[in-house]
Write a structure and sequence with these properties.
The protein has eight helices and 27 strands. The chain has 357 residues and is of the alpha/beta class. The strands form five sheets. Strands 1, 4, 5, 6, 8, 9, 10, 11 and 12 form a nine-stranded mixed sheet that branches. Strands 15, 16, 18, 19, 21, 22, 24 and 26 form an eight-stranded parallel sheet that branches. The longest helix is centred in the middle third of the chain and has 13 residues.
Length: 357
């Protein structure tokens, strides 16, 4: 079995962050989202992974992930020139997949239990396809499955205006070679994309066996800022392997699960976990609240942070106020100016959002 991870797309819902960064490389608990998917597939015993990349963010993904040596696997990169749908991604990856069974994983998704149990169930049940479902409150934003009273799949729809159920397709799919024939027989949807739901529906219509499992544990689709913060919260909340690798002054107070990276110095701070602070940071005379992750090489001085993701190489200095519910990109500088009269002085990129109170 092979793995196929989708790491293309333009990340329009995460702009302006994704103007300069691949959304799959944004950090959750200081680790790129994409790495969680790779590790989930590796934990299932899969040694060959193809990663779908786009022309815009492909180089950054290649640099961050490498050739797979860090996980003891082989990684092959597959260029998808345009984001023309999940089924199109599978079609593009056909030379890599050949006729092997494979698990397809959306690179911006996180699943609590990983994919190993699903791979085992897929192999034991000898089905042609296996999909993972989860009850959601907004099914019209997803592919939706309609099940019969016996639990069998009746039909699948992609982002229906009037969903027949609240069971969304989670971003993990398992297929054998028959999916390729199904994809060859479908046409682009009204969105101009080859939908994987249409391909699976084609399998059902041709009497192939499509299995499913309704997920009870958490699943997170990190497509928007609030989704990222929620993913960060969930992962930090389940974090147990914390280390104190830096230096903490006696006048600092740390409580709860707090990870402090190598070379980091904490002076005169209150830090309440769960929280993660990266390597070579300086955190002084500040408050860091729960569900906050701070990237490497960041300085926080006379400021307060809570429920935030702060990427690497940031400077947050002399604010004397609190930043919360925020996602800060790499190399961000937030400081209090000394000029008079007092005013907000901003330089904002496209699609920026600022809330001032």
């Amino acid at each position: 079995m092979k793995g196929l991870i989708l790491s293309g797309g333009k990340g329009t819902r995460m702009r302006p962050i994704t103007h300069t960064a691949a959304k799959q490389l944004l950090p959750v608990a200081n680790k790129p989202i994409l790495f969680y998917g790779i590790e989930a597939i590796v934990d299932a015993g899969i040694k060959e992974i193809g990663i779908i990349i786009s022309p815009e963010t492909g180089p950054a993904v290649r640099t961050a992930v490498g050739n797979g040596d860090r996980w003891g696997i082989k990684i092959e990169y597959i260029l998808q020139e345009e984001p023309l749908g999940l089924a199109h991604a599978v079609k593009t990856a056909r030379p890599f997949l050949k006729d092997d069974t494979f698990v397809m994983y959306l690179g911006d998704n996180l699943i609590k239990d990983g994919v190993a149990p699903l791979v085992k169930r897929f192999e034991e049940s000898h089905v042609d396809a296996f999909i993972l479902l989860r009850e959601v409150s907004n099914p019209s934003a997803f592919g939706v499955a309609h099940l019969g009273s016996d639990g069998r799949i009746i039909c699948l729809e992609e982002k229906p205006a009037k969903p027949k159920s609240n069971l969304a397709l989670v971003g993990v799919y398992l297929f054998n070679k028959n999916i390729h024939t199904a994809i060859d027989e479908i046409k682009p949807s009204k969105r101009g994309e080859l939908e994987i739901t249409d391909a699976i529906q084609k399998l059902i219509e041709k009497n192939f066996h499509v299995g499913s499992h309704v997920l009870q544990s958490w699943w997170l689709d990190t497509g928007k800022k609030d989704d990222m913060l929620e993913a960060n919260r969930v992962v930090l909340d389940e974090m147990h392997d914390v280390s104190m690798l830096g230096a903490v002054s006696e006048d600092s107070k740390l409580s709860g699960r707090v990870h402090v990276g190598k070379g980091t110095v904490i002076k005169g701070c209150t830090i309440r976990g769960p929280a993660m602070i990266g390597d070579n940071c300086l955190i002084e005379h500040s408050y860091v609240g729960p569900f906050t992750s701070i990237g490497d090489q960041t300085k926080v001085s006379y400021a307060e942070l809570e429920y935030c993701i702060v990427r690497e190489n940031c400077q947050i200095i002399d604010l004397h106020g609190r930043i919360e519910d925020s996602l800060l990109g790499a190399n961000v500088e937030i400081t209090r100016g000394q000029q008079k009269p007092v005013a907000y002085r901003l330089m904002l990129g496209d699609d920026s959002k600022v809330e001032v109170v």
